[in-house]
Amino acid sequence: MDWPQTPTQLLDLDLPQGEPWGYAFAQSLLKAPWAWRALRPTPGILDLIRLDLEEGFLRLQERREAFPLGSLGERPPTPAEEAALKALLTRDPEALVQVLKTHGPWPFALYRAFRFDGALHPIPRPRLPRPDELLGYEAQRKALEQNARRFLSGRPALHTLLYGARGTGKSTAAKSLLHLEGARMVEVEPKALGHLESLLERLSLLPHRFFLFLDDLSLDPEGEAFHHLKALLEGSLEGAPENVLLLATSNRRHLVRRLGGNPLPGEDPKAWDELQDTLALSERFGLVLTFPPFDRALYLKAVAHHLGRPLTQGEEEEALRFALQRGFSGRVARQFAQTLA
What we know:
Shape: globular
Number of strands: 7
Radius of gyration: 25 Å
CATH superfamily of the largest domain: P-loop containing nucleotide triphosphate hydrolases
CATH architecture of the largest domain: 3-Layer(aba) Sandwich
Number of helices: 13
Protein name: DUF815 domain-containing protein
CATH topology of the largest domain: Rossmann fold
Order of helices and strands: HHHHHEEHEHEHEHEHEHHH
Strand order of the largest sheet: 2-1-4-5-6-3-7
Strand content: 5-15%
Distance between the termini: 53 Å
CATH class of the largest domain: Alpha Beta
């Protein structure tokens, strides 16, 4: 076990309010080498946990006496940290196993948002859109949230593709789902698509439900990532775990960079096969939501919305000039409003 040794080691940890040594040791238990095995414990795993709890309890008492410290954290402790600390103080391996089954090992026990670039990185304070930040596309947002709530409640739900013009709020709508109770999200970087299998294997063991977020998705049909994603979307025997739902945004309806034109009748069957292969990926998303470009009226409404007041005639004219080279979109509306704020 990797127990913290000195007070300076505590400064690298994301500790909650309260006595820091206890919560630092609780986090060590959530990071233990046997933490994932404890989700399906065997007698030998329980023996290992028992030994580490006995050692941890003694070392915790030593650290507290040698280096008495006040609170180092600013946030409240999570239920997982409180329960892990209680299991340590009572030296109860069964209680610690229950903590891991309920909350998962670190970092899933502490955080709700993550970034995956081949390795998993927690995002302690994700930047979430305000409820009033989204404007327009009410029907699309309602369908997105209804599907998400079905998934979070354990009912069947559909992998979702949000596509349309740039700046229309597709990514903002997807990220807003983290406001829902029980939601967790992993944002997958494009370069990490080839490593999804290892991530999904780990997520499938956890009690949580995850949105797997693929932003601005655009794939090469000859690339390895394209085939990894297609197989994940019901194209393989394994598929995605039942506690994972895919959310993808794209400016392309068919998600591919080089689709080309339709083959002519009588052309080589291989050309038709390649076309169907590229179309098959987008068709594997059960819910497809379209975000068309802003028109003039919605753009001006969005500017006023961000300012929190009606526009004057002069401001309307200035806003239209601002969008002349940029186009009408929610992003441009927000940028122009910032110039007036």
